[in-house]
């Protein structure tokens, strides 16, 4: 990798003393981890086709589709990593249980990961790193989420009473414990997308960021429209034939609206940031709905893929996680990738110009557009990112070209796997180039990653 | 999908009742499973000439109990009636009457297999008459057999030796439970090509097969059977059937290829997958098919076009791409699913019957194109098969359809699959351009 091009970002990286990972790769110390392929079930709007499916059902189905596509029956995979954001306590071993229910060898180890909406991408990064280090030859990364079968907890009051009862030895002690129960304690505690430290929902947080960057309603609706059209077109030309396996009567993402229009999107009322007056621009049309679904990605060393005559779609080059202080209002909740991406690119000696595809997860249209706006803003890039010129402009013709979460839906932990498999196939079809993935996550976090075509 | 009537007339009080009332009594058919004996008892070889000698020698090689003369009241597993040397209708009498005398000893699930040569316009008139006579003879024997026994004929093109590989292959197929639902049919051996497998229980070992329409029904059964016989199987179906397809792939340790076979590049994608993952492609089974039934007077363009597109145009395009690719040229095997509707026609199925008849035409015209590479292409025409599709037929229609054949029952998807697997095997290398019905000698289009 050429480090002498005088780019400011590279200088930033150089002064931070970080290594260029491509150098170690080329020297043979570390080997490559490649994306072989992927499989997901169609994503379904919550309460729809998968209303009666559990996370384990869906993850198992996604694994079985992957096994069928690549002939992995009874094979011992190096490791399977997956996770869910909304998870029952009984699903502590969700991934391993799903493996046991799948057509894979029961001797395949597995572990659960949870990093909010970045879960799926983080499983890819973690397994790719193990492959690069030679710890495993093959891995399946994945994620699943259901808001239809979400865990509903008992209230804190009821929980305390129940625990007291279980500790009580005598009948009298048990009765005393039960007597502390109050009617309000019987109301269940349903999960929400609210941030524990601010009480604001993700949408309300993004509404603040969207307003801050003055992202227009029209721009958000345009992005949503493009997402639906791009996804529908990709289905139309059979792009997803080897990426998706039907499930429960669904063969395409049920949130997709191929025939939606700017006019239809314009009719929707704002649902987030309603107190912002003119700044209330976020609707159900330009925000992702609650979604159920699961995705998987087959990773391997080059030797693994070649020895089994499996395709090699892309290299997993590098990744970076980031986090922002949204609690004290220093930055928007979903803006962590804005900070992580420049660090990642600098470490790899790359600029935004070096990418052929950008996969920026559409949690909200406002998230994507705020991200792009921040990277183009000289003041922001100087003061927040420490760059002496704007990070750069993302060519919109390279952005989410086969649709993203606004159309496909966003089953939190499953989105990373969807994006990695989709991008890897796009890169392989193009035959050259790189793709940048950006996924924001709750807790002010985000993960970004680079794939390179094979 | 179960045939309750068949079970009723084969057990308990209802069995006696059916007997007394003279009701049709379909038998449980003798079906193949690995390890099953080839036949249930001694095999009687009737007739003189090369066919009889070759058959007897083959049967002895398989360690069967072979008789050249039937004893009184002897129980027999099969009768091989060699008529390949007859030159005049008068020559039929002796071997046919000897067969008749032995028929009463034929065990349930027994077999009568004729070996003869087809009559052609160039034959001396008496020879042609005699040879054609076998056609009516064998078909009538098949009608007369009971207890799940079947009668089928092997035809040897002039010039093909009676000991040709595919005569051996066809003889074994007809004797075994693999041909349980094939009845009253002739199979023409047109050349001495082909090879005997090293293991008759895994005749497709080392081969790579593609089965279209494999997500369920007959296609899934074909995939399972090819796998059982040793092949690596790529199962193909439309993306919308992908979940069932994945189940089949995982059950048989194959790979699933979600593909609409009407896509312009379907043949190339099939080839890419097979060569990419397995390094070879040996067998292609065109099973995918759809029905869009309507009386012709009510037929619309989309119903007509979609049936023709899936059932025959896609096969033509895929075959063309495979044959011109250079990747499908080492003794390739193609088997296409036709239908008895394509032979006899069927009310409300002008589109389907046209497409299935078209498949038969395609198969006949493609056979010579594959001959240079020792390839074969054949069609299998199922009759009434118990599938999810036929389970949805009205009860009365279904019952009538089931009984309108010599075996008085519907076939199973596995019965079709066994015939497909036989034609896909190396021992059928001398059989090409043929249509073999799996219909229990259905009266329709017989």
Could you characterize what this model shows?
- The complex is a heterodimer of chains A (about 450) and B (about 450).
- Chain A is an alpha+beta fold and about 450 residues long.
- Chain A contains 16 helices and 12 strands.
- In chain A, helix 1 packs across helix 12, helix 3 packs across helix 4 and helix 8 packs parallel to helix 13.
- In chain B, the strands form 2 sheets. Chain B has a 7-stranded parallel beta sheet with strand order 9-8-7-10-11-12-13, with helices on both faces. In chain B, strands 2-1-3-4-5-6 form a 6-stranded parallel beta sheet, sandwiched between helices.
- The longest helix of chain B is centred in the last third of the chain and has 23 residues.
- In chain B, about 55% of the residues are buried.
- The mean pLDDT of chain B is about 95.
- The chains are: A alpha+beta (about 450), B alpha/beta (about 450).
- Chains A and B meet through helix 3 of A and helix 8, strand 9 and helix 9 of B.
